[in-house]
Design goal:
mainly alpha, about 170 residues, two-stranded antiparallel ribbon, 6 helices
Length: about 170
């Protein structure tokens, strides 16, 4: 099922993404990937959520790391090229655009958690935390495009908040 989700994001990215302007968004795509990569390393032995394949391709997508890497290199670039490529002008439209993407990611996670069993929450994570995380994530991705230093600062602060709140043991790093 993860292959299908990734294929849908790839098709959406191809159709609606601003591929001709990829250089404008390249550093933000890398920021998006690097933040997720860092989070995966930080929580490797103390995950807050874990991807799993439960429908088909279980012999290929055998663990969280493989699925996460696929998402990083397919879903995040496609998302960024659509999200930033069509970012509206006007405060109200900007807020609605961010909320649309927050709702999309949250809805996909809800379905995958409760119906397809493609993700599992652990160590106190919940759909409420996913909602907050998605708000921060999409706001920070937009901020990175506009003011990278501010976005990096915010990502570091958010990381410390999550580490402290969820008591992520730093000695659990791989």
């Amino acid at each position: 099922m993860h292959f299908i989700y990734n294929l849908l994001f790839l098709i959406a990215g191809w159709k609606w993404g601003k591929w001709r302007e990829w250089r404008k968004y390249y550093s933000t795509i890398l920021f998006f990937i690097l933040c997720d990569f860092f989070a995966n390393i930080l929580t490797y032995n103390y995950p807050l959520w874990r991807y799993q394949e439960s429908i088909f391709a279980t012999n290929i997508l055998t663990n969280h790391s493989y699925i996460s890497i696929m998402i990083m290199f397919i879903v995040y670039p496609a998302t960024t090229l659509i999200y930033l490529g069509h970012f509206p002008k006007g405060t109200g439209k900007k807020v609605l655009w961010v909320l649309f993407w927050v709702a999309l990611y949250w809805g996909v996670e809800f379905v995958n958690l409760h119906y397809f069993k493609l993700i599992r929450h652990e160590n106190g994570w919940s759909m409420g935390w996913s909602l907050a995380f998605n708000i921060v994530m999409f706001s920070t991705v937009w901020a990175h495009y506009r003011k990278p230093i501010l976005a990096w600062s915010f990502a570091i602060i958010w990381s410390f908040i999550l580490i402290m709140y969820f008591n992520i043991p730093l000695n659990a790093l791989p």
